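During the second half of the funding period, the structural biology subgroup turned its attention to how the target accommodates small molecules. The most pressing case was zinc ion, which had performed well in the primary screen but for which no bound structure existed. We therefore specified the complex as follows and requested a full 3D prediction, including the ligand pose.
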Amino acid sequence: MVTNEELAEWIEERQGRFVAVANEIWEKPQLGLGETEACKIHTAELTKEGFRITPNIGGMPTAFMAEWGSGSPIIGFLGEYDALPGLSQKNQATQDPLVDGGPGHGCGHNLLGTAAMAAAMSVKAWLEQSGRTGTVRYYGCPAEETLIGKVYMAREGVFDDLDAAITWHPSDFNNGVKGSCNAMDNIKFRFHGKTAHAGGNPEQGRSALDAVELMNTGVNYMREHSIQEARIHYVITNGGGAPNVVPAEAEVWYYVRAPKRSQVNELTARVRKIAQGAALMTETTLEEDMQGGCFDVLPNYALADLAHAIMEELGPIEYTDEEQAYAKTVISGFAPGTCELNLRARGMPESMLDTPLHGEIVPIYDAGHVSGGSTDVGDVSYITPTLQVHTVCHPTAIPGHSWGITATSGMSIGHKGMLLASKAMALTGAALYLDQSLIDQAQAELKERTSGRPYETPLEPGLKPPVPKEVLAMAK
Ligand SMILES: [Zn+2]
């Protein structure tokens, strides 16, 4: 096995095995840091292929690294496998949860992890058969949806010696990715006051809820004097129990986002001052509970162009009439105008909706674009040149994190996108082993974009990942 075609064929011939893995994970959706099933399945598959496993990275039982080979270059494939709450869905084109309120793969991470695993395995087979030196890794990264896994893994230094990282995300278009995502801080602010009978002796009480409300008011006034791109949102997770009891405890949960990590640092510092001010005004005390934080994504144009050209060579995904009809039914399950608005937000014509599934490779359209969301891929992208590709795994312009994505992630539409992604990633990886100058170019770009500044974790010292107790117990 020495040619590109043979590498893609290696994956093609084993597609039944990879589809079975993706389906099994789809059928057993688990939330971030609790993805014991997916972790077990991936670990078993990689062990079978002769990979060495490093389990339990960063104190997370569902984080692991699988490695094969020796020496350089060292190329890492990043996989994810967490599900989302409330997105359970039957394997059908109309909305109907399999388990009411249950989790589901509404971001297609059952496909994400499996394609990255398949790419790592095929590259291993290729390295072995062609007698090349080099190391290939697969990173089982938990809890992407809560922006935890890769940030804690990065703090352990597991990405430090990579020459490049390769990953992808299920999407509605096939192409290389040059866009970015917002950096973010995720913090809970808890206020402690003094309870009292709200009717009888309110003068004796000090309301923690007042502190939460004043903090939110302060932050809302701060918006006028923040950069345009800042996105700050909160929910009150504890506002007291009854109107006639002055709440002694209250909590508000904030996400602070901006296009660059340094901007988030500045905004969070101001939000913290407002929280302290609220405590001062209400004579309550403040406790901060940082849940996590992540970097913005640093795109790598050299790698994106390389992968995009490879995808063009691989050619479009072909769909059957039944698959197009299935996708059309999914689209029609969303409120009228939803998909049109999603397209417009990306600067795309509404006529794209005439085709429910776009199998062709579309030109890269997101250079310079910063998406409002965040991903922990960002932290890896500041450590090593990081490639992301998109492949079609769901219908055109349907909302992210939706039942529609769960639906198509469990059937042939998702499987076809997964296979294209694994081939594109494997071939891009192989190209890097074959030509050191491609790695040099990608690394020069990273150096230029970061001005050579080393990555520093956004996590406060000593912060531990919030692994559920039962998962910790299972790992012992
Ligand atoms: Zn995702």
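Two results from this model are relevant to the next phase. The two ends are 41 Å apart (CA to CA). The mean pLDDT is 96.
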